[in-house]
Amino acid sequence: YDAIFANKLQKRKIVLGYTFNEEKDKKGLLPSPVFSEGDLGKHKIANSQERSGYSGNIDVLQKSAMSGGHFNPANEADGVLRKVQLVIPYEKQYYAALSLAVVRAYFDNPPVKLEFADYTGGDAELEEISVGGLKIPVDNQARALIPFRGPRNSFKYVSASDIMNELVPVDELKSKIVLMGTSTPDRKSTRLNSSH
Question: pTM for the whole thing?
Answer without folding.
Answer: 0.84
